[in-house]
């Protein structure tokens, strides 16, 4: 008599539990992405947005104070003596607009610093000029490249490089589980090199997001990508199939929203503005802006942020290496213990697992699911 029909209900129940347990990850991604993106972008409002009023007389002081009071914390208004000083502030990102009052009022902006901030400033001073009965002349002292008219191309370049990096973590950690950690780390470095070259192709010949400085762009793209990959490879030792959720939280949910690529910190809630000061996406976007449009002003600080994330990645790999070595030693001295395939040297995992009574296939199904989650299959 066949046992198939009686076994089917139990088999289906097990399969259903398996599916439901794995649905937790995409549902948490949904919640996390909603909280991060809507929290950061749904209601941009300026706060302490620095603008200058050009002039040293009483009228300039009164105008600045009036705007400061009327803004109720939205603007941080200062007076500067002359136009050259105002331009210098814009080119060093100390301000995001400068108003020159008079019969023909002029507004200076730097859209390469942030198109959305420039738009907010223009709206404010268009109303000021209209109140004085004069049209406003807008001068952009730092326009973006022709291939990036909105000034947001560098942000979407960061998105592409980020996805290529964090999705590769699941592949290296899953399909490469039988490889020694040093080989997985080397794969991470090599993959980051390829991802950075793809980024340069997008930024230069494909879309023309920048018209110079591709060498520096490549260096920052490689450093940024390598940091993500190394952190992810190190975390995979501990998080396993939860690695995708972990790296998405770090390098998508918190990263994209705090990068300043769409809205600068002055237009976002304070939490994301605080992350902007040290998160790697902000270091990448602001570093590219500095390198391409602002003659390298402040570039060292942004590169330092990327370098520190790279160091964090190296440290994560180092900690993972010690953990895997400890697991291997424990498995070697404990009878009947199955060694973690990711902790064994290349080619040793299947044999060790089989010798301990485990299936030679290991966690192949989970690895495949993890890779599918990472690339959105």
Description of the structure:
The chain is α/β, with parallel strands linked by helices. 64% of the residues lie in helices and 6% in strands. The chain has 13 helices and 5 strands. It has a 5-stranded mixed sheet, with helices on both faces. Helix 7 packs antiparallel against helix 10 and helix 10 packs antiparallel against helix 11. The longest helix is centred in the first third of the chain and has 38 residues. It starts with a helix and ends with a helix.
Write the layout of secondary structure elements.
Blueprint: H1 4-41, E1 49-54, H2 58-71, E2 75-80, H3 83-91, E3 98-100, E4 106-109, H4 115-131, E5 137-140, H5 153-174, H6 181-206, H7 214-239, H8 243-258, H9 270-276, H10 280-293, H11 299-333, H12 349-355, H13 364-375
Parallel strand pairs: 1-2, 1-3, 4-5
Antiparallel strand pairs: 3-4
Helix pairs in contact: 1-8, 5-6, 5-7, 5-8, 5-13, 6-7, 7-8, 7-10, 7-11, 8-9, 10-11
Largest sheet: 5 strands, mixed
- H/E element order: HEHEHEEHEHHHHHHHHH
**Which whole number gives the mean pLDDT?**
88
- Envelope shape: elongated
